[in-house]
Amino acid sequence: MDEYPTGSLDQNIPLLLTLGTSARSTYDPKLSPALKDQAILIRSELPALDTVQAHALLSYVENRDASFLPANGRDGARRYRFRVKTAERSFLLPPRRARLPDGIEASPLPAVLHSPYSPLSPVSPLYPDGLMDTQWILKHQDFIPSVLLCFYDLVSEPSLATLCDNKIKTDVNNLRGLLSQSGYRTRLAVVLLSDQALPSVDGVQERLENIRRVCGLDPKALFLVPPNESQEELERMAENMLTTLYGVAVEYFRDLGRHSRKKRGRNMAPQPTVPPTSGTSQTLSLAGWNVRYDFKSAMFAEYRLEMDNALRSFEQAYENLLGVELFETIPSWSPRWNDARFLADVIAVRCLRCLLWNGQHSAAARRWQAHRDRVAEFVDRRGRGTNNYGWEAWEARWATVMANLIEKAEISDFAPSTLRIYLQPEKNVMGERLQPWELLHHPGYWYHLAAKHLCARRDLAHAMSEDDRMPPSFSPASHVASTAFTYDTYMCPQPHEEYPINSVQGVDHSHKIIECLMRARSEFLKRQQLRFAAELSLECARELTLAKSWRNVVELLRSLWQDLSFRAEGWLTIAEDLSWALRSAATVVGDASLVIAIDWELLSRSFTRRTNWHYDITRSLEGMAPQPRPKVCIKDGQLLPFVATSFSFGDEEGKAGQSTLGQLVIKSNAHQGSAPITLSNIEVKLGGSVSRIVLKHEAASKTTQHKHGAVKLSAVPLLDGAEGAEKAEPGHPDKADRKVTLHGAADLTLLPGQTLVFVMEIPLREPGETRAVSLTLGVESDAFELEHSLNFGEGSGVANIWYISASATKRIARASPNSVRVLPRPPKMKIKNPSWREQYYTDEPIELEFDLINEEVVEAIAKLDVDLFGEDTPAFSAEIDGHDVDESSSTSIVENDESRLQGVSLGSIESSHSLTVRLRLPPIQRSSRYDLTLRVAYHLSTDIGTPIMQTAVFQLNIVNPFEANYELLPRVHPDPWPSLFDYEGVADVSGDNDGAVASSHLTHKGLSQAWYLITRYASFASEDLRVMDVDIRLQTARTVRCFASKRDTAPGSPPEDAGGGGRVMLPNTIVEAGFDIIAQKSTLDDRSPATLDVSLVIKWSRCPNPSSASRNSPPINTTILLVPRFSLFGTEPRVLATVSYGLPTPVAVKVSPSPVPPSLLPRQPQLIILHVVIENASNHFLTFGLAMEPSEDFAFSGPKQTTLHLLPVSRRSVTYRLLPLGNKALPPSTPTTNVFGGAVLSNWIKPSLVVRDKYFQKVLRVIPAADGMKLDKDGGVLLWVPPDVEEDPEEEDESSSEEE
Known about the structure:
By secondary structure, the protein is α+β, with helices and mostly antiparallel strands. α4 (about 160-180) runs parallel beside α5 (about 200-215) and α16 packs antiparallel against α17. It is flat and about 160 Å long. Mean pLDDT is about 85; it is low at about 720-735, about 985-1000, about 1145-1155, about 1160, about 1225-1240 and about 1285-1300.
């Protein structure tokens, strides 16, 4: 009775009923027995479909049921909303007109029958003056479908197609006739499922049109589903079908709304089927009929999701209902009074839903408050008042309805992630001064409000007198009559049912209150309102305690009790109430661990002392017998401790190997009069070489004790408790357990208000910071074990205090008195490298030798760690003298940019002795800089527990010993080019050169080119290096073959060493080397450009150190320098020029009668022969023009102007002979430098040679292709003129040999 009738407050969604498919559950409208006898049977004669496609389509339609969708307008993706029901082949519709009841005399005039849900029908509960009930609301929600969707099988077999279509038409017409006879306007839609692929589209379209026309179906109400559709395609078709049918359903409700408004416009009350004759009954007034019509119009608008229209109609119906013409005229003792209140509630709820749908949140909150105030005013003025349990029940119900509406709306701004408590008002009410309750709060607020009203309902129910709670059968009629006018029983039980006087179970108020509180608590927790949630948990626990649901109390309050936030914030009253309530429940359920933990916390004097309580932790489990014995572990911060602790060191810093004083203080803040606590042990956890300090309880311990007042100071000697630790083996210090546990014994009995001070001497072992981290108090009894961990901090009342004696203290001025800084013991182990170099070079193996010298007074047991930091660090190995190969050789591990070698055992190093360690690094390919760190960790044989560390850092610089630059000069290949017109292949080529570059060895048949590579390499080393050999490596495409030969040492190169081991190259010197390169394509058809990759290979070694005792020759290293990529075999024509020298042709000279001495005769100048070669590597026929201009510097013989025609893939040459006429540009006495670097008297001439492509009119650049030629700054060719020399055959031969 405390809830609204089913369906009265549900959102209106059009009903879609499917017919013609087999389903697991069929539709049952649940009509009343009276209406079921008059119901109309709608039945299909064809069997239900049971195919896979039909079930898949039906399953998808059922899954699209919108009954559980959020009640908001944000779901834009869903274009329809249906409540889907399924019937196989038949269903019942309620009668459109109700029959006359039995026993009514027939009227002379024919009776006008009305709907069984109308106040005009005698069979209706509303007859004769009722307004509206739930049955009419359910009529369109569950009884009458807006759309009837029928499924049929469309046979594609031609011989059965006509028969199948006739059956479908007959069945559809039968259903249409039945719906027409029922008087309802339900829309009929048909889905045809084809059994297989149809033969033709035109034939199918004709059949569908025939079925639609004969059955009188709307074009939007006939659908065809092809066979063998995929699941995605079937879902797409179902979506389109439901979207279309939703438009049909909207039109259905639009017609109903239009009909309702039409009847309201008549402005007259209809007459009932039979006039009322019993008592003073009267029919419903016109104002009541207007309320019905407005309510119907609003409901139909809600079906269409026209929320603005629905809100206006609901508000109009609400105002007419509570107006003076209707609600004021109904007596409060009449059942119609409660019916009118019910209708007002329903209208108000639907108004709230419309406002929330439209996003008017503040308007919804104000509308909720306005309905409550208005109903309260009516009940106070004309009802039974608001000071009774019935009104509080309605208040709780009204708050719960608001919470349910907000949850159903799923407002995005109320999502838990937003942590919003309430929503801001709309813009249209921003200027108004709103009260806090006029803002829309989250559902937890409304559930909490409902719980308050439920508590008030219980209090008012329990305040009723026993006479009022007596059943009517045991009370006088007069008292029953007076009771009926005292208590408001609207939608709630009578007084004798609300709170029975006998043992009969009445209303379970605690269950209702707990349910609301738990829902509110959940909402508050979602929004991080932890304090409010804790308050609700306490209220809920009180209710559970009244209900004696102890296990639920423990489950609810345990997590809240473990939360220390309200303790830290000073809410100790809440913590105390919570602890006592939880202890009572834990005692009943037998949770011994929880009882002990609560009693341990309640010992603190921060809580109120409860009289007649023992405050003895050993008696906590009296009356309980837990098995096995519980062990309770309490962590720091889990509860409020009753002890204050601190640990302080006497010194701020110390050195490894020494000791310092430590002081542990424990102060009891237990209640006065509580039992003393005997601690079984105290464990102090330290960070450092000493892992922990353990104190055991001994009542008669021999420690020195001093007492003064409530302070007891004890000096506790500590012993090394390493009996379980491994001792260090000789030569293996890493196997020793460095973590030490110190043990001591003292009297650990702690009285209330007493302070225990323990003074201890703590050895310092490892360097670093040693800090007191935490303290663990242990209590053992026959019934339980307890461990409480406490962290040391500044919050305790005994921190930063040092007890000089039991009666005197001083304050420690340090920032962290619970820590001591341990300085390392100064190491006396030296790490030296006498042969360290400033530079090491790439491409050479590196060996580093270090001496470890022990300057300690005793032997040291050591191990070595080596770290190499840098970019692309290599792996290295270490070797120790005097060790076996298996033990001494170790390889580092490379991780990221670090190569690390750890834990290399060095064994024992005697005092004043040394040990040699060698590190070997592989050759490194590029210049690098590394940081090499050596760490020697050792222990003295007399003090293994104190580690000592010696560190040495070296910077390893690795540089490239050589750098070079390169120049590739073209040369004229001596062999002729192959001809395109030689169909038998390239002719054999012969030559007189040696085998390295001989043309006869070239088996390729493509073009050939000759080049000269000049390399100039410089030494960037800081010392002399011995260059053993210089060579090049060639790499080109597979279609090109290349040969290289090294010329003799170029002038200016360093001389070879007398010892025959290469040439010594001084730092910062440059050496030049030349290489002849011949390249040839594999085939003549390949004329694409090719690339040439060259690498310069230098083999070198270090010069031996004369002072070194080693007789081994330094290793030979190989450095490879990459040469920039060159391009060969271009397709453009090029002009190459070479030069040679000779004597002119002899001429006849008239002999003088008196001979002149030969020294006085004029010297003959050398003849310069200039060869110009034009190469055409393209597929085109080219024509070139050559022009040689006369000059005052030389005379020449050869064509002054000529034209050369070059076939494709060919070359031609022109020869000029030049005779210098004198050194005009440069005086003969001026010293110049020839191409070979010698200082001679010489000159350069510049012939004006122009080569022009006659087709493109482009001047080609003349490229020097031999020694004795160069280009000037203008791009012209300069020819070297040798100095004038005498005609000496031997000198001429030597000169010619040098040129070659």
